[in-house]
Write a structure and sequence with these properties.
binds zinc ion, 47% helix, mainly alpha
């Protein structure tokens, strides 16, 4: 007497299992994206800290702070000092295209919180 083996799952149960797996995948993707962007976030933070260090160095050398993140404001007595601090030019924007703004003589994270 031949007996046919039947699946232990009904169609509805299989669909529910598939939907649960899809839910798990969508729950994991946002976390994966955050981890994948970590090097970019770290690079942004390092760039911001580097600029702040250059602002402090500018003050130590010239007893004045640069007023903005433009080459003209890293210049004193007609000497283009910005080349000393940023050989490729003063970075006006971060890697995400938002402007670096000097407030209280430093670059704040304001406006860049989503980048770090
Ligand atoms: Zn930014």
């Amino acid at each position: 007497m031949a007996s046919s083996r039947k699946s232990h799952f009904t169609t509805i149960e299989l669909i529910m299992i598939i939907l649960i797996f899809i839910g798990i995948i969508f729950a994991v993707i946002p976390g994966y994206r955050y981890i994948a962007n970590t090097p970019v976030r770290n690079a942004h933070k390092i760039e911001r800290k580097h600029i702040n260090a250059q602002i402090q160095l500018f003050f130590v050398n010239h007893k004045d702070f640069p007023k903005s993140m433009q080459n003209k404001d890293w210049t004193t007595h007609n000497h283009a000092l910005w080349q000393t601090y940023f050989p490729d030019g003063v970075p006006e924007k971060c890697t995400f295209g938002d402007p670096w703004i000097i407030q209280n003589n430093q670059i704040l994270i304001t406006g860049h919180t989503k980048h770090e």
